Amino acid sequence: MEWVSPTVWTTLTLTISADGEAAGELTGASRFPRHWVYDQTGQLTAKSAVADLSEWMHVSHGAHTPWGAEDTRPLVAVVETALEHQLSVLIMHGGAKPESRRLPAGALLTEQGAAADDLYLLLDGLIGVSVDGKDLGDLGPGAVIGERAILEGGRRTATVRAATPCLVAVAAKHQIDHESLARLAEYHHREDALADG
Question: What percent of the chain has pLDDT over 70?
Answer without folding.
Answer: 93
